[in-house]
């Protein structure tokens, strides 16, 4: 049986909603951060992932595409 601590932490980078320009990054624990560009959002997500990984947990960064599908962002 898999313990919840064995699952990777996930960081989500959401594509802006229609008629909006704000990228949203959702961290574990429902901590939400807003960014005006995709680059800033992804950079923040990757920095957070590196810090979490340094504490011994597996981390995944997933970015939403305009189609609504998710792609992994490798770091």
Task: Please give the structural blueprint.
Elements: E1 9-14, E2 23-27, E3 31-35, H1 38-53, E4 59-64, E5 70-73
Parallel strand pairs: 1-4
Antiparallel strand pairs: 1-2, 2-3, 4-5
Keywords:
75 residues; alpha+beta; 1 helix; 21% helix; 5-stranded mixed sheet
The rough form would be described as globular
Strand order, sheet with most strands: 3-2-1-4-5
Intertermini distance: 28 Å
| Tally of distinct domains | 1
Structural class: alpha+beta
E-strand count: 5
Task: Report the helical percentage.
Answer: 10-25%
Radius of gyration using CA atoms only: 13 Å
> Helical element count?
1
What percent of residues are in strands? 25-35%
N to C succession of SSEs: EEEHEE
Q: Give the overall pLDDT as a whole number.
A: 92
Largest sheet composition: 5 strands, mixed
Summarize it.
21% of the residues lie in helices and 35% in strands. It has one helix at 38-53, and strands at residues 9-14, 23-27, 31-35, 59-64, 70-73.
């Amino acid at each position: 049986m898999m313990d919840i601590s064995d699952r990777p932490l996930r960081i989500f980078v959401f594509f802006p909603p229609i008629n909006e320009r704000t990228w949203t990054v959702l961290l574990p624990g429902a901590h939400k951060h807003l960014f005006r560009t995709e680059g800033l959002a992804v950079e923040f997500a990757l920095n957070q992932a590196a810090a979490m990984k340094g504490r011994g947990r597996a981390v995944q960064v997933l970015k939403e595409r305009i189609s609504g599908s998710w792609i992994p962002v490798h770091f």
